[in-house]
Structures are given as C-alpha cells and as structure tokens.
Design goal:
alpha/beta; Glycerol-3-phosphate (1)-acyltransferase; 3 domains; seven-stranded mixed sheet; three-stranded antiparallel sheet; 19 helices
Length: 517
C-alpha cells in the first residue's frame, strides 16, 4: 500500500452554490429574452409534473410559482432571479460535504466492513473470520502510474456499471490500490438507508435525482462536476449512465459528464494553473454473477425499459437478498476482477508515466495545441469539444472490450444461447426468450464443443475460465444454481435446460468479441 493520498478539502454548500450561480450568470449573458423564457419554461414544466408525484416541500413549490409569475410577466430580471434560485436549490441538493475525518475512519475499518458485508451474516452474528477481500478482489493495471498522475493532476475514473454493488466495490478497489477518494454521483434512492447515506455523503458521493428531467438541472450537474474537478477533486463517472440493462459492455456512452473534464482542463489552462491537468482512467469490472440480473434483463426486454432510467425497487433494495447473494459468491470462491485501464488525456490520447500525451506512434505531443491558438490562449469551440468528447467515449468503449475479463458464466451462457439459436433457427431473439424452459433444451456436448472452440479463439485475452471446457461448463452450471430463482443454464440429463432471459443477459457480456462472430 502506498502512502496515504492527499485528501480533497470540500468547500461548504453555500460556496458551491455561489460558484454554480456564477457559471449560469456567465452563460446567460447575451441570451435573448425568448430563449431565456424557453429555458425557464422547460424547468417549470418538468418540475410541476414531478411535483404532482413528489413533495419537495413548500419552499420548493414557492420557487416554482415565483418562476411562473416572472414568466407570465416576461420580466427578464424576474426570470433570471428564478433561474438562480432554482440553481441554488439544486446545488444544495447535489452537494455533500466530503469529510477527511470520516474518510480516514472508513478506510481504517474498510477491510473489516467489507468482510462483514461479504459475509452476508445477520448483524448479531457478524464475525470477521478469516476472509480476506484482497484474495477475492483482484486488481490489475498501471496502478503505480495512476498514483503518480493523481499527485500531479486530477483523475476521472470511468468504470463499467452492472450492479449497485459496483460503488462499494470500486471504493474498496481504489483504496486498496492506494488511490485517493473519488467524488461520484449516486442516485437519490441509494440515500434512503440513513447509515449508508451518512457515509456516502461524507465519502465523496453527490446526490443525483434522476426524476428531474429539465435542462437547468442537467446543466447544474455538469457545472457541479466541472467545478469540483477544477478544484482538484478526483471524480468517478459511470459513462453508461446507469446499470447495463442488457448485460452488454457499454458502447454507447453518455458524454455530458465526460465533457466536464475537458471543460475543467481548459479553465485551468486559461487560469495558468500548473496543477490543472486532468486524466481519464477506464475501469472494467468483471464478476460472474450479477445480483439484479433478472430485473435488469426483464427491464431491457420490456418496452418501457426504453424510458425508465432508474429502477427504484429491485433485488438491491432488500438487505437479506444482498446477503444471500454474496454468501453464494463466497461459497463459489468467486473472484472479482477490477482492471484499471491505460489513462488518457481529455481529448483521447494515451498518456505516459509522466502524464505526457502520446500520438498513435507513441510520440509525445503537446495537448494544449488541441484547444489553444498560436499565442497560447484557449479558444472556445463547442463543436470541437463535442468531437473530442466523442473520441474519449470511443476510446473508453475500446478499453472496456480490451480489458474485460470474461468468466465461465459469460462464456457458457454465450455457448448455450448459440446452441439454442441453432436448435430454433426460425425464432428471433424475442421469441427465443419467451420459450418455456422445457422447450429451451440444448445438447450438453454441443455446448461443451462451442465452449472449447471459444476458449481457443480467446486465448490472446485475459480470461477467468477453468483449464478445460468441461470444467468451465461445470463451474458455470454450479454458479447459476447458487443464487437466482431461475437457473440460466442447468443440468437436464444429457442436455442443458436454459432460462432464456437470464441466459441472454449473461451471454450479452460476450457480445463485441470479433473472434466469436
């Protein structure tokens, strides 16, 4: 373990609110009255609809009504005042004061707490025992380089996202790697547990209310991210936006928050700061079973899954279910692979151990040239910045595919799904997932042959398979039998019986490998 990393000193909420209001003021300068009115109207429309379902208190409702009055009067001072008032509300909701004292306390007890969490025992039965998280959570990647970069600049960690268990997993992994704490957005529903909320609020989590759909709220979140990165608070974004519903590795990434790293870096350049460098780090998580798999794939397949951004009630909502799930993992002696990828700059170039940007041939390039004119002044260009952020998103998608460590459950589900397709050539995916398990039966030997062939094709990748196809198949069947109500793949005499929806979810993790097409 490296020496304790430097800790971020969080400003009070009032200071953050004032900074975000200043950012909005600058953006509104020169905005036509009609555009300003549209901006406020969008906020009022969405917030009134939301308040029909949710009660945020009289003060909030009063702010909405004051905004409506200024809009009816088309009073520019009134409209601006209403917008600034809403920004202050949002800032106070979003910002949580990071506590260095709480962080030091949490990191001292973290291994024991994680052990207790992973033991899944009842509170009165909690005993640490001999479980060592480091033996189950395997870290890899250029960790020494990341420590150096964290001292010189600000890191943005960009992980894949499959489960609500990802947050404590990444928190432990960053701590175990000797990396500093990261600020990250957590859904409002995750703060419902008062104990969990106490620690999340003080360990870097900021609150994201995904019920709020208006442009002003989304802009406030981006401004908040830019502000804290500029203040050298290392940050974590899930670029997929939310847990992968289908089980696939994320490829279509949300770019809003990703772009805040580029914005913060340009602000630092313009201010002449020497400690303003920003680096983006891919992080790929691989675990053989996913707690919420049944709910997530059902949501992905359902038509309304296209509209829902957050599931408020799933397996993660029940502490007993979490305990049962993790106990199942421990009994399987399962390994979790956390791969920190090659860091890059905010325009998508890889960086070396000194934080210098490299071109495709490995030559050092001056990244300031991407955003500065010949005189060294930063030039604002939204279209250019959008393209750079697109490039970063593409590089992240490539890193996820390159760094992911497929496990037996993923490969066996892929082989079983391929066998199911071959057995039912006239059925599309939708009809296949609607097959009754008694109809979704495939030949075990055929699946084993597909597994063996795939293992040889994937030999150039880092994998977590057993040495042989039969052992890999046995491991997956045993894992699938350990937790879910339905078994994605189960023994059925000389055959295998599938639960098509779950089988599809786990096989989707293998989508993207050219070798398997």
């Amino acid at each position: 373990m490296a020496a304790d990393p430097p800790l971020f000193r969080a400003p009070p909420a009032s200071q953050i609110a004032a900074a975000l209001e200043t950012r909005v003021r600058r953006r509104l300068v020169g905005t036509a009255d009609a555009l300003l009115a549209d901006y406020l109207a969008d906020t009022l429309f969405h917030e009134r609809k939301r308040l029909e379902r949710d009660d945020d208190g009289p003060e909030y409702a009063e702010a909405i009504e004051a905004g409506a009055q200024s809009l009816r009067a088309m009073s520019r001072p009134g409209m601006e005042s209403s917008i600034f008032r809403m920004v202050r509300h949002y800032a106070e909701e979003v910002h949580n004061p990071f506590s260095a004292r709480t962080y030091r306390f949490a990191t001292r007890i973290m291994p024991g707490v994680l052990t207790r969490l992973l033991s899944g025992a009842r509170p009165r039965d909690l005993v640490l025992g001999d479980f060592d998280p480091a033996s189950r959570i395997l870290l890899s990647g250029p960790i020494d380089q990341l420590r150096r970069l964290a001292e010189a600049g600000t890191l943005i960690l960009a992980p894949t996202h499959v489960s609500n268990l990802d947050s404590p997993l990444i928190g432990y992994s960053a701590f175990a790697a000797g990396l500093p704490p990261f600020a990250y957005g957590a859904g409002l529903n995750l703060f419902s547990n008062p104990v969990m909320a106490f620690f999340m609020q003080r360990l870097g989590a900021y609150t994201v209310d995904r019920r709020k759909k208006n442009r002003l709220y989304k802009d406030t979140l981006k401004d908040y991210s830019t502000e804290i990165i500029g203040r050298r608070h290392h940050s974590l974004f899930f670029p997929g936006g939310t847990r992968s519903r289908s089980g696939r590795l994320e490829s279509r990434l949300k770019k809003g928050l990703l772009g805040t790293g580029l914005a913060a870096w340009q602000e630092s350049l313009a201010a002449g700061r020497r400690d303003g460098e920003v680096y983006i780090v891919p992080c790929t998580l691989s675990i053989g079973l996913v707690l919420e798999a049944e709910t997530l794939i059902a949501d992905s397949l359902a038509e309304e899954g296209k509209q829902r951004y957050i599931i408020m009630d799933d397996e993660f909502a029940d502490a007993r279910t979490i305990g049962r799930f993790v106990r199942s993992l421990l009994q399987l002696d399962a390994k979790v692979h956390v791969v920190f990828g090659q860091p890059m700059d905010v325009v998508g170039n890889p960086v070396d151990g000194e934080g210098r940007s490299l071109d495709p041939r490995g030559r050092v390039v001056d990244r300031r040239g991407y955003v500065c004119n010949s005189g060294g002044a930063v030039v604002a260009d939204e279209q250019r910045d959008y393209l750079y952020t697109e490039r970063v998103a593409e590089r992240l998608g490539e890193a996820y595919q390159r760094d992911f460590v497929p496990q037996s459950t993923h490969l066996v589900a892929w082989a079983a799904w391929a066998a199911l397709r071959a057995t039912n050539p006239g059925l599309d995916t939708w009809r296949l997932v609607r097959l009754h398990p008694d109809q979704a039966v495939v030949d075990r030997a055929a699946v084993s042959r597909r597994v063996d062939d795939a293992m040889s094709r994937l030999s150039a990748y880092k994998t977590a398979f057993a040495p042989s196809a039969d052992r890999t198949l046995d491991d997956a069947v045993r894992a699938f039998a350990s937790f879910h109500r339905h078994r994605a793949v189960a023994e059925h005499g000389p055959s295998l019986r599938l639960h098509p929806e779950l089988c599809l979810y786990y096989q989707n993790r293998m989508v993207g490998y050219r070798e398997l097409r």
